[in-house]
Structure formats: structure tokens, C-alpha cells
Write a structure and sequence with these properties.
Mg(2+) binds at residues 66, 85, 87-88, 212. Keywords: Hydrolase, Magnesium, Metal-binding. It catalyses: a myo-inositol phosphate + H2O = myo-inositol + phosphate. It is an enzyme of class 3 (hydrolase). The protein has 261 residues and is of the alpha+beta class. The protein has two domains: 3-140, Fructose-1,6-Bisphosphatase, subunit A, domain 1 (Fructose-1,6-Bisphosphatase, Chain A, domain 1), CATH 3.30.540.10; 149-259, D-Maltodextrin-Binding Protein, domain 2 (3-Layer(aba) Sandwich). 34% of the residues lie in helices and 25% in strands. The protein is built from seven helices and 13 strands. The strands form two sheets. An eight-stranded mixed sheet has the order 2-1-3-4-5-6-7-8, sandwiched between helices. Helix 1 (7-25) runs antiparallel to helix 2 (35-57). The longest helix is centred in the first third of the chain and has 23 residues, at 35-57. It is globular.
């Protein structure tokens, strides 16, 4: 079966999970004591919905999710692994900052083959497969055409409780004067999709998990973006090392700049 055969159920699961997150978001406030427990419940509720909907259609498929979900594929057809982040941008979600999403990726025989990312606040559904174009709410998207790093808007992910001496901080500081601007937003999956649709020109991190990247990487690649490790080597979803750009000369420029840290 082609990756597109799995796309409809992935989209249904992402939207349903987004509705779960919205339903939980008004049950707590950022000042409530113990709000992290509520967020944990929202994470699990979102993940359960995704796994249930996908398993109903594909009971032999495997799962790998942020909230302790690890189930091997039992399919005789191929090795299917759904890589799920039920709430990417947890800190933003806790504080009511509207930049979080649901991310679903599908790996078939070790190859990232499908990605769906849903932003329930903006009702934006990003999607792509390895054999179909990248779409936003059904419309084709592509990366920006900004050709130079000094004109670019970039985003970086930094680890929580980062020490000032951390190489991730040094990379951020080195990139600041080289670009038009560098931001930190709190949702890797949305960052990837924003590169895919041209809202951002580049994004990097050295602290991500597979579920942060899987869905968005497929979408960004199909939109024309370049995805590698920080040093320009081949991307590996199992390695917490990601550099993604719009596919222009910015990529090589960023590789060079980030190596200075």
C-alpha cells in the first residue's frame, strides 16, 4: 500500500486529538497549583485517541509515542511504526500561549513516509506523504525563496534549563548577527511546518526526540526544504540533531555559521 492509503486516518486522528487538547485547556489555568498533572492527563488523553483511531484501522501496526507508548509492528506486509507527539509545545499549552500542535508520523520499513501536523488553535492541518505534495488545509505549500542567511527569519530549539555554556546557547548567539532574526517558539513540529509553508526560512535543534521531528520532516521535505543534521550530514530521526531550511544557499551558510560555536 502507498503511504497515501494511511493519510485519511492520520488526519482524522490528529484532528480528534486536537479537539481533546482544546477540551482540556479550559480545565486549568497557569496559576493553578499542580497544573502539570492536568497537562499530563491531556497528553495521555490525546495520545490514547490517536492510538485508538489508528489501531481500529490498522491493528497490526506499531507505535512509538512521547507518553511511554512503545508497541512493535506485527504486520507481515511491512514494518509500520507510527511516531506520535500528542502535544508538541507543552509549556506553551500550560501558559495559554497559542503555539502547540499534534504531530503524527509514519515510518514504513525504516523510512519516514507520512506526516500530519495539526494546530487546533488556528485549525491548520499540514500533511504530506513521500509520494504526495505538502498541503495546508488542502492547498499546496512550498518553502520560501529567501536566498541569503542575512535576510532570513530563523528559529532554534534550546533545551530546558539550559546552562549558558551549553553549545546550543552558543549556536543561538552565533546565528543572531548572521540572520535577520532568530526566535525560540517552543514547538518543533510547528517550526518544521512553518519552514514548509514559507513563514520561516530555517530551524535547528540538537535536543529533539523522534516524535518531535517525524511528521514535520516529511512535510518540509515535500515542500522543497532541505533536512540534515547540524553539520550537513544525512538526517536520522533517531538522532537529536536537526537542521532544516528552505532549500536555498541558506542551508550551507547555516552549516558553516553553526560550526563556529
Amino acid at each position: 500500500m502507498e503511504p497515501a492509503e494511511y493519510l485519511d486516518v492520520a488526519k482524522q486522528a490528529a484532528v480528534a486529538a486536537g479537539e481533546v487538547l482544546l477540551s482540556w485547556s479550559d480545565r486549568f489555568s497557569v496559576t493553578e497549583k499542580g497544573r502539570a498533572d492536568v497537562v499530563t492527563e491531556a497528553d495521555f488523553a490525546s495520545q490514547d485517541v490517536i492510538q485508538k483511531l489508528i489501531s481500529e484501522q490498522f491493528p497490526d501496526h506499531g507505535f512509538f509515542g512521547e507518553e511511554g507508548l512503545s508497541q512493535p509492528s506485527r504486520s507481515k506486509e511491512a514494518n509500520f511504526r507510527w511516531i506520535i507527539d500528542p502535544l508538541d509545545g507543552t509549556s506553551n499549552y500550560v501558559h495559554g500561549f497559542p503555539y502547540y500542535c499534534v504531530s503524527i508520523g509514519l515510518e514504513i520499513d525504516g523510512e519516514l513516509s507520512l506526516g500530519v501536523v495539526y494546530d487546533p488553535i488556528r485549525e491548520e492541518l499540514f500533511e504530506a506523504t513521500s509520494t504526495s505534495p505538502a498541503l495546508l488545509n488542502g492547498n499546496a505549500i512550498s518553502t520560501s525563496t529567501i536566498p541569503q542567511l542575512r535576510q532570513s527569519l530563523l528559529v532554534a530549539s534550546l533545551p530546558r534549563n539550559t546552562d549558558p555554556a551549553d553549545p546550543a546557547v552558543r549556536r543561538f548567539l552565533v546565528a543572531l548577527p548572521a540572520a535577520e532574526n532568530v526566535q525560540r517558539t517552543g514547538s518543533a513540529a510547528l517550526n518544521l511546518c512553518y519552514v514548509a509553508c514559507g513563514r520561516l526560512d530555517g530551524f535547528w535543534s540538537s535536543s529533539l526526540k523522534p516524535w518531535d521531528m517525524a511528521g514535520g520532516v516529511v512535510i518540509t521535505r515535500r515542500a522543497g526544504g532541505t533536512v540534515t543534521k547540524l553539520d550537513g550530514a544525512a538526517f536520522d530521526v533517531g538522532v537529536p540533531d536537526l537542521l532544516v531550511t528552505n532549500g536555498t544557499a541558506i542551508h550551507d551558510e547555516l552549516v558553516a555559521v553553526l560550526s563556529l560555536s
